[in-house]
Amino acid sequence: MNNSVDAPTPPFVPNYLLYLLAAASEAASERFHAHVRSKGLRVPEWRVMACLIDTDGSMVTELARYAMIEQSRLTKIIIQMDTRGLVSRRSDPKDGRRVRVFLTPQGRALAEELVADARIDEQELLKSFQGGQGDHIKDTLRALIWHLESGDLKQG
Amino acid sequence: MNNSVDAPTPPFVPNYLLYLLAAASEAASERFHAHVRSKGLRVPEWRVMACLIDTDGSMVTELARYAMIEQSRLTKIIIQMDTRGLVSRRSDPKDGRRVRVFLTPQGRALAEELVADARIDEQELLKSFQGGQGDHIKDTLRALIWHLESGDLKQG
DNA sequence: CCAGGAAACATGAATTTTCATATAAATCTT
DNA sequence: AAGATTTATATGAAAATTCATGTTTCCTGG
After folding, report:
1. Domain HTH marR-type spans what residues (chains A, B) (predicted)?
2. In terms of C-beta distances under 8 Å and separation of at least 24 residues, what long-range contacts does B114-121 make, across chains too?
């Protein structure tokens, strides 16, 4: 007979990939998201503005994919941002169904300021994350995203 | 004079660490989260159950940290889950302020089923992600989380 | 040209989430 | 040991999100 105690079963959550991804995303974003809110924007609004810095004038559906926001939700966010003067909406002359979204001068000024802040924040995160490791994490994440989006992993 | 066109400015968003983390989390979770919903649970409810598999009987505040859900929101989720018979709430006899949350037998059965499914899903993700790379990503994420939570990166 | 269908957005009602604060129990202070 | 603080959870109203579906515009074959 064996008197020794069993090794405790290891916990599930802290070793689960989807938890690690969500926790890493949250932890890494916390500080900058607080900064965004201090500037009077909610995080989804900041995401819209960051996307528009890259692709000003894109249509709502494109923006929804790029910013990872569901379409009807994005529509409502954009309407609010329009009201606040951060973006303007114009229907596409070539296709009346499409609504193209543009940064206003005011919106662009804020967006550029925040993108600059975001770059600094990112550099601080990466450089504090011991030399070189920092570079690799972005590559790893890009590879993971590419793998997940392309392969579709057997259409379960 | 130089006739050559400038190289286009590289886009910000697709190379931004916080975007990569959020996008990786979303892409990796999509399939399993759909599975969770097909079982009649919303994602935050699944998170609560997964946490309780590890730490049944924990108090609301602990659970909130572990499941990354804000406290007052968690309270409401737990009340719903209690009503549905997935968990039960008992006030701690040692400290009347605390509410300890337990899986019911029915809740535990569902939680165990989903944890098993989650393990399978995770294995499929990792093994499809070319040999060995899979292992490393979890280590990288753990390191990042540990770094972010411990260091606090200068108290900006 | 027209009917049918698809694509792009908008909308409304039900539900959730957020934020500030209330309540209640434990702990500290003097 | 009474009062002041802190900790734990609950609550309510305002705001945001979700989901299904409506509306408008475009496209396609006959």
Report:
1. 14-150
2. B114/B36, B114/B39, B114/B41, B114/B46, B114/B49, B114/B50, B115/A12, B115/B50, B115/B53, B117/B32, B117/B35, B118/A12, B118/A16, B118/A18, B118/B32, B118/B50, B119/A12, B121/B31, B121/B32, B121/B35
